[in-house]
Every structure is written in structure tokens, then in C-alpha cells.
Amino acid sequence: MSKHVYRNIDKHLKAGVIVRMDDSELVRIAKAIADPTRFAILRAIASREEISCGQLAELFPIAQATVSHHLNVLANAGLVEMRKQGQHHYFRLQRETVQQFGDSLLHSLTTHFPEEHGVNRA
């Protein structure tokens, strides 16, 4: 999903409009947070207003390049926003996206049946 679409989602959420993610978006975000290190990085970002890539690298026993890779995946999934200041990159949680993911996941799990997607129940 492009940054433009995420901005539109944010605008709708602020206006009180319920916007549901489709299954492909749910899967993409789920894959982004399925990696244990990436999930831990996301939790570290969520616990602060914002944090730099360098600060994150100090928290984890991995190379800064690896942290950067994980941050890129999280940003592409729309879970974090990056702000550049000089040579430093600062990240913050996109709370609206996380909220929408949770709401959309619950809606998808409780309203779609496997038969709709060609899967037979045992």
C-alpha cells in the first residue's frame, strides 16, 4: 500500500470513518511482524515517542544494517513512519495503522468463512 493510501486511511480514521484492510494488506502486515526481531524492534519503537536507527541498534545484538533492513520492512508495511534529520533517521509508530490492522483482522476472522476462498472445512 502506498504512502498516499496510508495518508488517506489516517484521514478517514480521524474523521471517524471505518476503513477495513483487505486480506492482502492483513497478510503483508502480519508477515512484517511475524519475525521475532522485527516484532521486538516495533515494540521498542512503540514504547517511545520516536527513536533513531542508531539507538535501536544499541538495543539489539545485531548490526545497524540489519536494524535498517527491519525498519525498512516495517515502514513498507505502514507500521512506522520515518523522519530524517541530518544524517539521522528517526522512527515512530503509526498507531492508526496498528489500530486499523487489529480491527480489520478481527473483522476478517469473524466474518469470512473458508468456503468463500475455496477451502473446505474438515
Strand count: 3
Tell me the span between the first and last alpha carbons.
Answer: 34 Å
Q: For the record, what CATH class applies?
A: Mainly Alpha
Major sheet strand order:
1-3-2
Q: Could you list the spans in which at least 5 consecutive residues all have pLDDT below 50?
A: 4-8
Total count of domains: 1
Taken from the alpha-carbon principal axes, the silhouette is elongated
What is the topological layout?
Layout: H1 3-14, H2 23-34, H3 36-46, E1 51-52, H4 53-59, H5 64-76, E2 80-85, E3 88-93, H6 95-111
Antiparallel strand pairs: 1-3, 2-3
Helix pairs in contact: 3-5, 4-5
Question: Would you give an account of this structure?
Answer:
- There is one protein chain.
- This protein has 122 residues and is mainly alpha-helical.
- The chain has a single domain, classed as Arc Repressor Mutant, subunit A.
- 59% of the residues lie in helices and 11% in strands.
- The chain is built from six helices and three strands, in the order αααβααββα.
- The chain has helices at residues 3-14, 23-34, 36-46, 53-59, 64-76, 95-111, and strands spanning 51-52, 80-85, 88-93.
- A three-stranded antiparallel beta sheet has the order 1-3-2.
- β2 (80-85) and β3 form a beta hairpin.
